[in-house]
Amino acid sequence: MLILECPYCGLHADETELAPGGEAHLKRFGPGSSDDDFEGYLFMRENPKGVHFERWRHANGCGKWFHAARDTNTLEVFGTYSAQTTEPPQDIKDKISARRPGWTWREFA
Ligand SMILES: [Zn+2]
């Protein structure tokens, strides 16, 4: 069972308390952007077997959105952090690098 620590209330919530929100760190394009950029924002998602960054909501808890870094293959959780960030915190990226040398995800490594 997937268990994530909510970075806001500190509870270790299992997946029955959480609602998935899809991929984290999507870049939204504003007015004047190309149709290809907007199409990519709407439809193009990563589907890795390995390190992934996701949005989750502590739906049956504090109700707040947060991000989680985990391995989709092993369910190993590298950490959770605020959804108000544009990229994963360095300590989580360092933890992933220690466990999965050479990993990349979008522009992060
Ligand atoms: Zn919470």
Automatic annotation (TrEMBL):
Please name the GO terms of the biological process aspect recorded for this protein, alphabetically: tetrahydrofolate metabolic process
Q: Which residues cross the membrane?
A: none
Q: Which residues form the signal peptide?
A: none
Looking up Gene3D superfamilies in the UniProt record yields: Folate-binding superfamily
One matching Pfam family, short form?
SoxD
Per the record, the coiled-coil ranges are: none
Single Gene Ontology MF annotation: sarcosine oxidase activity
Q: What is this protein called?
A: Sarcosine oxidase subunit delta
Q: Which organism is it from?
A: Lutimaribacter saemankumensis
